[in-house]
């Protein structure tokens, strides 16, 4: 395998792992704070699936990196010992749980993206990625189903719930453009049949999300994408303000007590 | 490893297959369909290959420890328990025996279809207590990653259902 191909694959795998890890952590914040018992259990279960995906992806990213640098970073090193600008997750997953509708909106848009991504990746020429994706896509189908159900219940519910669902969608929507933006890493893994080029995932995502919004009686938000300085975003390590607080909480225990275990 | 008979390995495989699942202890690893292979490593130590039901299944750590402990009692110290993801586990791999045991313990065995495709088809799930097909989902997520929570409209009892994957 060429060094260039390995470099792109390592960067790509890290992006996917960071997406899953940060999405998982946002949902874990709601454990014991869900709006009702069943929902509490559901959000924790989804968080756990995402954490499992993150562990496989980050472990693999670390091993790919080791081949290039000779230095191994474990899943814990990657999760707990990197700073904000070294995380390559999309910004959508770091958006805070402002209210339940915000959590639902984020989950709808993200799980619909992950579903298309893992569907494509299940056919990856890289056996490990194909294995992780083939497993994860079945889990994400349930996540997407869960978020769709709530979008419809809130959107097609009372005046209050509908307004709040619409507001949450509008707040999350500007971060969806980043999900489908390509760059050299994405193009490289797509060209070698290892990964998916994000723009290719968009048409199926649009069809699915539009279908859910139509059933929920919600309009597709017409708001422009939000980019960081010089058009950079999460993939380049430029994150939202909320992300620093998330990392501080997620990493604090490990950094204060290195090697702590249950 | 040649194809020569290895009665000791057969015995090891039998032991490992009978280890109970920590979250649904009425099922063995064989019943659940997560045991993929029992082999010998290059150094002759047993290698047990398992696959998780869900990516984040927290029971995997306990299963690894239980398998190693069971083999240690048989005198096989340092057995390796390897996890593979591919091909992905499916509820179709739960054996007939496993399905029977689940139902006996008040957990509906997997039926219906996973939510893939634009219009998910939902087949009815029978109440494991009264057998009525008139049941509905309370929550798609339950007490473990692999179960959902349902309620029976006929006998009003809530119950767990191993959701199709």
Automatic annotation (TrEMBL), chain A:
Top EC class, one word: oxidoreductase
Give the EC number(s) under which this enzyme is classified: 1.14.13.149
Question: Which InterPro entries does its entry note?
Answer: Aromatic_CoA_ox/epox, Ferritin-like, Ferritin-like_SF, PaaA_PaaC, PaaC
One molecular function GO term is: phenylacetyl-CoA 1,2-epoxidase activity
Q: Keyword set for this entry?
A: Oxidoreductase
Keyword set includes Oxidoreductase? yes
SUPFAM superfamilies of this UniProt entry?
Ferritin-like
Q: Which Pfam families match?
A: PaaA_PaaC
List the NCBIfam families hit by this protein, alphabetically: PA_CoA_Oxy3
Protein name in the entry:
Phenylacetate-CoA oxygenase subunit PaaC
Q: Which organism is it from?
A: Nocardiopsis endophytica
Automatic annotation (TrEMBL), chain B:
Per the record, the domain of life is Bacteria
Where does the record place the MIP18 family-like domain? 17-76
Signal peptide annotation: none
Tell me the ranges covered by the PaaD zinc beta ribbon domain, including all copies: 123-163
**InterPro entries of this UniProt entry?**
Fe-S_Maturation_MIP18, FSCA_dom_sf, MIP18-like, PaaD-like, Zn_ribbon_PaaD
Designated name of the protein: Phenylacetate-CoA oxygenase subunit PaaJ
> Native species of this protein?
Nocardiopsis endophytica
